[in-house]
């Protein structure tokens, strides 16, 4: 029983689908941030000069508005002008952040809309459970990862600053524009190397999250069996349904025996009830059939209903094995059955 409860089985498709519907998917929260940081770094490297030129032009145009009096109306115009022009300058940056943020999440999980994940859950605001999550194994792992990232980033920044320490010291003798240029190059080097390193760590975290997600969703053999029962139906219930269906089919079959013209028997092993309406049927039709106890019951009903019971073991056996209920007999049995039906005309049945 202990083996049944151990979570050793991979999650089923239904388990994965249910988890996705609840918003529980394998993804790294660090990957979007790392990708965004790297692309923003390169973006500012190439877009930075244009951005600085635009900001300088904006400031210059604001100061050139000398014809405005200092009042509420002029202040409103200057503020509105500043907001619009600043938005134009920053629009590419904002668009990049938005697109990269959305794309990096969609690439991890695919497009998904899960209203169930947005529904309120009382356990999320339970202080006791929240305290437990804070000191859980998962939280400890996340803390260790964060400390490691801080250490690595700090160490990389330290190595770059150390490499440029002579240049940094000589900045004291430079003019403002040279200082700004040198400082920008050092910051850019730090940013793109840190961003690249963060991207590699985020990819490693994504792989770990995929593994952890699969481990968290693993199922016990008992859970797999129960899910299979729910999907396919309980075997006991299905067996009971089949039994009821067979019983109903037998009852319908027995109800059709009095409508037959003749019952061919073997004489105790098989019994097949036939009906033939020349104007309606192309060939005789099997109305009912059975063996042993069922055959005896068919014969009994036939006798009670005044139906001719004719013993012909080869034909009865052949009809029972080759023709289903409701089907016409095959051509190779036409002659033999016709001879049997000819006896029906000689048999005086009571009026039904």
UniProtKB/TrEMBL annotation:
Per the UniProt entry, what are the Gene Ontology biological process annotations, in alphabetical order? bacterial-type flagellum assembly; protein secretion
Subcellular location(s): the record lists:
Cell membrane
List residues traversing the bilayer.
Answer: 31-48, 89-114, 147-170, 190-208
Q: Which GO terms describe its cellular component?
A: plasma membrane
Provide the membrane topology annotation.
Answer: Multi-pass membrane protein
Q: Would the keyword Transport turn up in this protein's UniProt record?
A: yes
| Region ranges (Disordered) | 1-21
Query: In its keyword annotation, does this UniProt entry include Cytoplasm?
Result: no
One Pfam family from the record: Bac_export_2
Q: Out of the domains of life, which is the source? A: Bacteria
Give the record's keywords alphabetically: Bacterial flagellum biogenesis, Bacterial flagellum protein export, Cell membrane, Cell projection, Cilium, Flagellum, Membrane, Protein transport, Transmembrane, Transmembrane helix, Transport
Provide the primary localization: membrane
UniProt cross-references to NCBIfam families, sorted A to Z: flhB
Q: Which family does it belong to?
A: Belongs to the type III secretion exporter family.
Its biological purpose: Required for formation of the rod structure in the basal body of the flagellar apparatus. Together with FliI and FliH, may constitute the export apparatus of flagellin.
This one is known as Flagellar biosynthetic protein FlhB
The UniProt gene name for this protein comes to flhB
């Amino acid at each position: 029983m202990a083996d049944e409860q151990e979570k050793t089985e991979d999650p089923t498709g239904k388990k994965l689908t249910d988890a996705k519907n609840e918003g529980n998917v394998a993804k790294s929260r660090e990957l979007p941030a790392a990708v965004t940081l790297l692309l923003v770094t390169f973006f500012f490297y190439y877009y930075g000069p244009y951005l600085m030129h635009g900001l300088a032009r904006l400031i210059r145009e604001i100061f050139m508005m000398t014809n405005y009096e200092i009042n509420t109306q002029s202040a409103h115009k200057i503020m509105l002008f500043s907001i619009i022009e600043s938005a134009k300058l920053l629009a590419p940056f904002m668009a990049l952040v938005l697109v990269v943020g959305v794309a990096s999440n969609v690439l991890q999980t695919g497009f998904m809309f899960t209203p169930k994940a947005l529904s309120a859950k009382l356990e999320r605001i339970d202080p006791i459970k929240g305290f437990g999550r804070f000191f859980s194994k998962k939280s400890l792992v996340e803390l260790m990862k964060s400390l490691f990232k801080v250490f690595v980033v700090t160490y990389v920044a330290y190595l770059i600053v150390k490499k440029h320490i002579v240049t940094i010291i000589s900045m004291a003798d430079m003019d403002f524009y040279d200082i700004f240029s040198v400082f920008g190059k050092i910051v850019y080097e730090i940013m793109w190397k840190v961003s690249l390193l963060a991207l590699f760590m985020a990819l490693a975290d994504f792989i770990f999250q995929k593994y952890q997600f699969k481990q968290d969703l693993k199922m016990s053999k008992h859970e797999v069996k129960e899910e299979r029962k729910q999907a396919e139906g309980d075997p006991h219930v299905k067996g009971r349904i089949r039994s009821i269906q067979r019983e109903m089919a037998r009852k319908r079959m027995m109800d059709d025996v009095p409508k037959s013209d003749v019952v061919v028997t073997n004489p105790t092993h098989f019994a097949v009830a036939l009906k033939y309406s020349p104007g309606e049927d192309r060939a005789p039709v099997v109305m009912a059939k059975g063996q042993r106890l069922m055959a005896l019951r068919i014969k009994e009903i036939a006798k009670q209903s005044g139906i001719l019971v004719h013993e012909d073991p080869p034909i009865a056996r052949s009809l029972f094995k080759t023709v289903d209920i409701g089907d016409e007999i095959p051509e190779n049995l036409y002659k033999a059955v016709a001879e049997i039906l000819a006896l029906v005309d000689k048999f005086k049945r009571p009026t039904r």
